[in-house]
Design brief:
By secondary structure, this protein is α/β, with parallel strands linked by helices. Helices cover about 35% and strands about 15% of the residues. About 50% of the residues are buried.
């Protein structure tokens, strides 16, 4: 970090592991992912001539007061708390921590400027402006908002009219400016500012390293695109970008960044951030060829969809080191899939699963319990599909109305109960509260989700498969993981 008074902006990733993951945070079961979005902003602002610091409170194990103290020590012109993770669910649940950090920072530097940005503030900019202690809220990516804001602050202006910027007037009422467009040319962005992050501290997801469970570090996240062209009702990712759509980086830029991460930081474990990586066959095959030609020896996972993965992609993915594909199966009920606009043919699932396995690629299967219209019959259909696929890993979620999703708007319109705290949007927190379905309460959904988790991971068939594919050490690890029951305030009610 630079010397005092040299910092124009400090970008902060809040750390809330204990509150968000409850007892699971005590067992190193969760990943610690580098804040790619904040690192992109840092690199862009540095390219524009601003002096930048980047603080990852989660990676450094800092509590809220310690984080604020580190921010204060830097004496930045602007302190920006970036509430964006590398998946749509990772923003809202960090809002309690973000506000606590800003509150402590305000005590230490009462007159210093603080800003809140990320996916959740972009989804709820007026509420974030009204309810937090931030002087400013940035709606959108920030590339067109932060540079003119920093220039205005340097000039002594406190209420600039800048696209994407929200603030309060003298009476405390939110004041908005038009939202800026998304940054279209991703190759015009510099490589993420990895040098500002504690790269040795990042840890891959446990399942990502099955077969070598003790080798989860170092770990990095890269993007080949931003945005998503689809419109699933439960997803909020495009609230950061302002509209549905996808922007692509050049394959050459992606491979150059991967090589930099390998040669500079010794990275082998990589997540491809893209909401939809396996989308355009020609692009995916070419990127995989380039990665293979560099001989980078990577362990990569990426997202795919049942209706976008193609036969030519699979061998190319495997040769490039993409050993895991995460499929959003979501539900085993055709009725439920149609209601949430998932947009794939459920009859194609078994074919896609078989072909993925046949090419030696492992599956991270994503399922959601408690989608609108779900009842015990449809949720049991989902559980049956989970057990039938028997993927090497399953992410088992309960339906949440994340701000920015159509499901959130529907919940407000219908008056459905929502979590009382932002941490209640975390899948693993004590106060987690899923949506009711019209037939089941949120507590009933949560209890079924936890039952499904235990049924899946404690299944002898699943554990035998893990032992056969990954060895006794990984099987023992899975049994230990599955032995932890979550403390739940609302389960069953």
């Amino acid at each position: 970090m630079k010397q005092k008074s040299d910092i124009d902006i400090i970008l902060v990733k809040p750390g809330s592991q204990k509150r968000i993951y409850g007892r699971l945070s005590d067992f190193a079961l969760t990943a610690i992912e580098p804040p790619l979005y904040a690192a992109l902003l840092a690199a862009y602002l540095r390219q524009k001539g601003f002096s930048v610091a980047l603080l990852d409170a989660e990676a450094e194990g800092l509590d809220y007061a310690q984080t604020a103290a580190r921010m204060s020590e830097a004496e930045p012109l602007l302190a920006a708390v970036v509430v964006s993770g590398t998946n749509p669910s990772a923003s809202t649940m960090n809002m309690d921590g973000a506000e606590a950090i800003l509150g402590h920072y305000r005590e230490l530097r009462p007159r210093a400027a603080g800003l809140l940005m990320g996916l959740h503030p972009s989804a709820l900019p007026e509420r974030s402006t009204r309810e937090t202690t931030a002087d400013y809220v940035c709606q959108g990516e920030g590339f067109y908002t932060l540079p003119p804001l920093l220039e205005a602050l340097k000039a002594g202006e406190t209420g600039p009219a800048i696209p994407g910027l929200w603030r309060r007037d003298e009476e405390g009422n939110p004041v908005s400016n038009p939202r800026p467009p998304a940054f279209e040319d991703l190759d015009a962005l510099p490589m993420a500012a990895w040098d500002l992050l504690p790269m040795k501290t990042y840890r891959a997801h446990n399942w990502h390293c099955f077969g070598r469970i003790t080798e989860r570090e170092p770990y990095a996240v890269v993007h080949t695109s931003l945005g998503c062209p689809f419109n699933c009702s439960f997803c909020c990712i495009n609230s950061l970008y302002g509209k549905r759509g996808i922007r692509m980086r050049s394959n050459q830029a992606v491979v150059d960044e991967l090589e930099h991460l390998v040669s500079t930081y010794g990275v082998r474990n990589v997540k491809i951030l893209d909401e939809m990586f396996a989308l355009k066959e020609d692009r995916v095959v070419e990127l995989c060829r380039l990665i293979s030609e560099r001989g980078l020896d990577l362990n990569i996972w990426a997202y795919a969809r049942v209706n976008t993965i193609t036969e030519p992609m699979l061998p190319s993915l495997r040769r490039a080191g993409i050993g895991w594909l995460a499929y959003g199966f979501e539900s085993g009920s055709k009725r439920i899939l149609a209601e949430v606009s998932k947009g794939y043919d459920p009859d194609a699932v078994s074919r896609v699963v078989d072909k993925t396995f046949a090419h030696g690629i492992h599956i991270c299967a994503n399922f959601i319990f408690g989608l609108p219209g779900d009842d015990y019959e449809s949720m049991n259909q989902t559980l049956e599909l989970m057990l039938d696929i028997n993927a090497e890993w399953a992410n088992i979620y309960s339906a949440m109305a994340y701000p920015g999703s159509r499901l959130y708007d529907q919940a407000l319109l219908q008056g459905w109960p929502l979590p009382e705290t932002w941490s209640g949007y975390s899948q693993y927190s004590y106060d987690c509260l899923p949506l009711p379905t019209g037939r089941l309460s949120g507590g009933q959904v949560l209890a079924f989700r936890d039952y499904a988790f235990n049924t899946y991971f404690r299944s002898p068939r699943y554990q035998s498969m893990i032992a056969a594919k990954f060895g006794a050490q990984t099987a023992d690890y899975v049994r230990g993981m599955a032995a932890h029951d979550l403390d739940r305030k609302h389960a069953g009610y």
